[in-house]
Amino acid sequence: MKRTSKRIKDRPRLCVFRSNKHIYAQIIDDSNNQIIASSSTLTQMIKKNTKLSNNCNAARSVGKNIAQKSKALGIKKVVFDRQNKIYHGRIKALAEAVREEGIKF
Fold it and tell me: Signal sequence span per UniProt (predicted)?
């Protein structure tokens, strides 16, 4: 369990993983140890709409998708977990897309 999630147990965690080819986002409820929602550049809808999966446009698509899923579940506040990656490039694009959709962190 991450240190941030130990401090804030009332909010789920938006965990972002970035590889060289893809980006993955999951909303995790640490109190129940469950993944509530997930999205990545491997999902069919995002894969169909983007040519490359390793650029900022693909990360924005993943951010919008995960934000829409979380709003449908009634989640409006999350803790952003970037897993010691710098807040730049694809991580920043995903985070800004999530914020534009109305999710706060």
Answer: none
Domain that holds residue 93: 8-100
Partner residues linked to 17 by β-bridges: 24
The tally of domains found in the chain comes to 1
- CB count, 10 Å around CB of 78? 22
Pairwise CA distance, residues 54 & 79, whole Å:
24
With a threshold of 0.70, does the pTM exceed it?
A: yes
81, two tokens: 């977990």
